[in-house]
User: Which sequence fits this backbone?
């Protein structure tokens, strides 16, 4: 029982990061019907800025806002220079565009920075634990869970209680009608990308703290985790994205823990079997939503 | 996680290769005597290479330029994220060393030329271009997915040195492919021996799975040797090589069986072990001895403060103030991400040239035959012998520990 609780906390910590990533992907998908495979670059680019910042005397207190701001700016810039030019194109074109951004960003860092791992110092409390009965809870996991709850609550408030949120939800529901009602499409799309960047930035803080490093393809795994979580939750569903992220994190930790040592390397395979089973019985994910209109 | 990489690769048409080893080179500065290497069969004996003189050459004060037919070195290298950290600076150091050789009058009056091609998606094409140019032997990247097409493009007639690789299956003397350093089995067996010699009798292993190239083969070799000596493996955990940085569930498992006086061994990258170490220490396991492979110094994060005390097996140690260090500085590779690997590239060049000297020939197949018989070559990364091997030189393995931003040599195994 103790081990189970320990693993649940670990899984929630991991899943919280996935949830933030998935939510950012879901926000953009809801508006543009774009599955943004460049989402990981919202971690890669701030990651290199973090590397630079630490080499210039910054610390985590000053780096945290830098990561969030740079993620938001990166998201807006990507939207501006890449996606805004192909808004009327097919889904496939959008998909390839997002892949193109990923490869271009990776190549730029590879050529102009280094192919090698760049080190980022982890915070000193990174692996500290708090004993609760027989449990050794990582401060890091507890922080991730706490911040995730706060950010999700804030995002919910933003979407439910502000004009921006109303416009975003209206656009996600039916973009053409929303535009006829006077909603500025450019503003809504930029707002969605900014929100997506903010969520990726928060996730990126924890991802980079955990990784303690950045590489040209640093965004690949967070992007895939986020996309997977969004798919599990149900593409386009914001609640589903959060649920999907937590489910994915829990599944990874619990399956690894339950598998016998000799086959624990098959954890990823078992996770995918579960995902496949989910899609067999619920093709739309945990919380499927009706297909939305794209801009 | 690996499945994520696989997914991305499927969706995005190829990404990230997994890969193996790394190596770094150095060694105590070229212990070379500059003396003539013995004739190693394969043809007429010839003078050896004066490695010391080459390393000490002053490009501002050269002798007359050599005028003979040039010795042509082909290099097909991988500039991607997978191997670029070594192959990119490797592509810089070899032409620089060729300049040094030519500065000293060349090899028997013959200048040395190095032509580098990026392997890209088609290493066979790059190889063919260099064959057309006149390459007499090749320096290749560390991974089999490039080296094997190179060998095929050359019809198996060209000597290919996988400069920065420790992958044992890459070496195949029959097909003229050679490692320049020890292989995975050699380095990990040496680590196991060292751990046992220190009185460490229980081990924790991190692996990607039995038989998995590099990330699994190294732990396999450690386990075999360690258990053969009488040691016990108390926990074997799996992880994603170069990917995972959250080891929560593994740390929970290890904390249930470990006391903190074990040796930890894996082929993981430095930044992964620092994360795991922190998580294990968070579980109260403070006294574990962390040992790893050449991957530790393959990532440019070798001397992070978090990695203080890590023990690993580099391929070479570039001594401060040595001629070798000056060569790396002159070629702009001393400040690269993998300066300790550069001696392996230098040695790759010199070994091929030694083959030419030994056979007194210019035909690639004859050169390759001569390379197979090289014995006791005084390389910049240590003494190298191919005679009687399958292309893996039986080099000594230095066991070093990170100490205040430098190597502290704890011992040497084998050789």
Assistant:
């Amino acid at each position: 029982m103790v081990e189970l609780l320990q693993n649940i906390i670990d899984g929630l910590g991991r899943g919280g990061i996935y949830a933030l990533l998935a939510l950012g992907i879901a926000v953009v998908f809801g508006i543009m019907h774009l599955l943004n495979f460049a989402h990981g670059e919202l971690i890669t680019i701030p990651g290199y800025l973090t590397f630079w910042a630490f080499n210039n005397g910054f610390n985590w207190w000053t780096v945290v806002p830098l990561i969030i701001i740079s993620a938001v700016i990166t998201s807006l810039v990507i939207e501006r220079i890449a996606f805004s030019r192909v808004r009327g194109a097919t889904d496939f074109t959008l998909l390839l565009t997002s892949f193109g951004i990923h490869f271009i960003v990776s190549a730029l860092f590879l050529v102009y920075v280094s192919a090698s791992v760049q080190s980022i110092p982890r915070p000193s409390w990174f692996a500290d634990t708090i004993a609760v009965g027989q449990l050794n809870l990582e401060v890091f996991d507890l922080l991730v869970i706490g911040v995730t709850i706060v950010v999700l609550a804030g995002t919910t408030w933003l979407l439910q209680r502000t004009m921006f949120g109303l416009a975003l939800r209206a656009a996600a529901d039916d973009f053409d009608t929303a535009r006829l009602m006077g909603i500025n499409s450019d503003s809504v799309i930029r707002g969605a990308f900014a929100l997506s960047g903010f969520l990726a930035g928060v996730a990126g803080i924890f991802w980079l703290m955990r990784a303690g490093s950045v590489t040209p393809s640093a965004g690949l795994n967070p992007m895939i985790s986020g996309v997977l979580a969004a798919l599990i939750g149900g593409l386009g569903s914001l609640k589903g994205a959060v649920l999907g992220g937590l489910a994915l994190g829990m599944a990874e930790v619990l399956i690894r823990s339950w598998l016998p040592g000799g086959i624990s390397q098959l954890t990823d395979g078992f996770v995918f079997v579960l995902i496949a089973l989910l899609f067999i019985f619920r093709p739309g994910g945990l919380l499927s939503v009706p297909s939305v209109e794209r801009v | 996680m690996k499945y994520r990489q696989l997914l991305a690769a499927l969706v995005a048409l190829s990404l990230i290769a997994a890969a193996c080893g790394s190596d770094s080179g150095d060694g105590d500065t070229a212990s070379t005597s500059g003396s003539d290497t013995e004739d190693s069969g394969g043809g007429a004996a010839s003078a050896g290479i004066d490695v010391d003189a080459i390393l000490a050459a002053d490009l501002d004060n050269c002798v007359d330029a050599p005028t003979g037919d040039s010795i042509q070195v082909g290099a097909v290298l991988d500039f991607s994220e997978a191997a670029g950290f070594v192959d990119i600076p490797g592509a810089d150091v070899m032409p620089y060393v060729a300049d040094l050789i030519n500065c000293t009058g060349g090899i028997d009056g013959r200048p040395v030329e190095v032509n580098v091609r990026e392997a890209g998606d088609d290493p066979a094409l790059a190889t063919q271009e260099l064959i057309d140019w006149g390459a007499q032997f090749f320096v290749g990247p560390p991974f089999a997915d490039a080296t094997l097409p190179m060998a095929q493009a050359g019809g198996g007639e060209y000597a290919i040195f996988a400069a920065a690789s420790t992958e044992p299956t890459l070496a195949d003397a029959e097909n003229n492919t050679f490692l320049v350093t020890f292989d995975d089995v050699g380095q990990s067996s040496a680590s196991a021996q060292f751990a046992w010699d220190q009185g460490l009798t229980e081990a924790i292993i991190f692996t990607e799975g039995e038989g998995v190239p590099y990330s699994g083969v190294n732990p396999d070799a450690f386990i075999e040797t360690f258990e053969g000596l009488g040691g016990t493996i108390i926990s074997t955990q799996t992880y994603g090589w170069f990917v995972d940085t959250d080891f929560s569930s593994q740390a929970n498992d290890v904390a249930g069986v470990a006391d903190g006086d074990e040796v930890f061994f894996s082929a993981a990258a430095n930044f992964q072990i620092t994360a795991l170490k922190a998580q294990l220490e968070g579980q109260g396991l403070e006294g574990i001895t962390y040992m790893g492979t050449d991957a530790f110094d393959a990532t440019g994060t070798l001397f992070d403060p978090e990695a203080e005390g890590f023990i690993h097996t580099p391929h070479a140690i570039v001594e401060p103030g040595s001629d070798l260090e000056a060569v790396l500085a002159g070629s702009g590779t001393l400040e690269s991400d993998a300066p300790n690997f550069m001696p392996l590239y230098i040695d790759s060049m010199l070994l091929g040239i030694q083959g030419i000297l030994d056979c007194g020939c210019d035909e690639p197949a004859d050169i390759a035959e001569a390379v197979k018989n090289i014995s006791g070559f005084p390389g910049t990364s240590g003494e190298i012998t191919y005679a009687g091997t399958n292309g893996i030189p039986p080099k000594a393995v230095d066991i070093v520990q990170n100490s205040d931003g430098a190597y502290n040599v704890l011992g040497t195994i084998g050789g």
